[in-house]
Amino acid sequence: MLGRRDALKLSAAGAAGIAVPGVLGARSLRRAFAAGPAAPAFTRPLALPRVLRPVRRTMTTDYYEMAVREAETEILPGVKTRVVAYDGSFPGPTIRALKGRRVVVRQSNDLDMDVSTHLHGGHVSPGDDGHPAFPVAPGDARDYTYPNAQPAATLWYHDHVHHMEAEMVFRGLSGLYVIDDPMEWALGLPNGAYDVPIVMRDIHLDDAGQIVWEMGDFQNRNTILVNGRTQPYFEVAARKYRLRLVNGSNMRFFNLSLSNGGDLTVIGGDGGLLPAPQTVKSVQLSAGERADVVVDFGAYEPGTRIVLTNAFGTDAATREIMRFDVGSPVRDRSRVPDRLGRTLALPDADVTRDVVMDFNPATNEWTMDGRAFDMNRVDIKIKRGQTEIWRVKSDSTHLPVPHNIHLHGTHFEVLDRDGRPPAPHETGPKDTVAVMAGSTVRIKVRYDRYLGRYLYHCHLLDHSAMGMMAQAEIVA
Ligand SMILES: [Cu+2]
Asked: What region holds the Plastocyanin-like domain (predicted)?
């Protein structure tokens, strides 16, 4: 947490045009800014992103097409907000893939600038990973091939174009990508209409309801959206639901709980199902992280209203994310078995390396191991199949702010955080993990698929766009 002096320092940095970092709990700083336009809470129903239909199916492959273009959406009731959107949808359309069945997405670019689409959490070849070295030029298109040879999981796709990813994601370029698995269906978890995406993000709107983009402008992003709308309500039957919680913010961390103190049963994390369900009272998600939770609304009386609460919020608009309105009981045959997925079960590590995330006050750049990103530079070479332990440290000497780390191309195990065990939602395969100011998270990593270059970076996108990114080359 920041003290007042730190907040003042950050305030000065902001005035000087420096990328102001995302700050948890900087209440004194936040109060200095006026809130944006607001809609009354819980007046509109939860919107569900539309599910994209394949344009063609073969024995092995589902083919999709979408265009990146400008569009208008109704974030606030009755107000048209200009966004940049996949296929004109905000958030982008959902792709539901099947494990073991290939997906090819043709992304065409109707903007007047480059784009590059990354499937976050997907195990895909370096050429299909949305690396900024392979952008799609205006008027062009690119086919991205996703093998889906990985466990069922809640993934998301978003823009990763060089230096502009933070702005483009902020303006709307992200969407859900869910890998389903018939083996998972056999577990009996809530599915169909009871499997619901909850994609949360913050945004800064001006008085006319238009997006205000400024790098590092965390303290003004005080409007929270769920599936693209402010503070929706969701009428649920009195039964179990699977909620796919996704933090699609650029920088904001959420600490989520139910306002009635009810249980959240975490069943999955970034990389798919946890080994076993974990019943908790709260789940903390940094930008880019996901957690699948089951909530049994059958435990509550019809008519009960439960707010999904963010303990990191500083006012009603940032604390009260959405509301569940419990309706009548319905037959519920779903269950949460005691055993779900698997750990990566990686062997003992061959190599240990340190990764240090820091800020360089001389250049105003965010750095990984003292350097800002250069896409023509390989920062580390890793032998394919080798198990490594990374000690990832958020160095708080220059700016005491939280970061996280996201690895492209593989999953990792979270070993510990400052010597303490990982949080319940961190007990399965992960691709993104929070690294709080001054703390060190140890992860165990193995790249065992493709050779080539993969990014690793802070997923506070205003940080990665300002240098906090590096690349590993996987070698034979
Ligand atoms: Cu960061």
From this structure: 68-182, 220-299, 355-472
Angstrom distance (rounded) from CA 353 to CA 50: 42
Instruction: Output the DSSP codes for 368-416.
Output: ETTB---TT---EEEETT-EEEEEEEE--SS----EEEEESS--EEEEE
- Output phi, psi for 30, to 5 deg: -60, -35
CA of 280 to the centre of ligand 1 (A): 27
Asked, as a colleague might, if the bond just before 277 is cis with ω within 30 of 0, I would say no
Mean predicted confidence (pLDDT) in 64-78: 96
pLDDT interval class at 38 (50, 70, 90): confident
- Give me ligand 1 centre to Cα 404, in Å: 6
Query: Which position has the token pair 């796919």?
Result: 244
Span from the CA of 250 to the centroid of ligand 1 (angstroms): 10
Residues 6+ apart with CB under 8 A from 38: 76, 223, 230, 317
How far, in Å, is the centroid of ligand 1 from the Cα of 191?
A: 35
Compute the distance between CA of residue 247 and CA of residue 284 in angstroms, rounded to an integer. Answer: 10
Please give the pLDDT value at position 325: 98
Q: Which CATH number fits domain 56-182: 2.40.30.10, 2.30.42.10, 1.10.3720.10, 2.60.40.420?
A: 2.60.40.420
When pLDDT is averaged across residues 366-391 and rounded to a whole number, the result is 97
In CATH, the number for domain 351-475 is: 2.60.40.420
How far, in Å, is the centroid of ligand 1 from the Cα of 437? 10
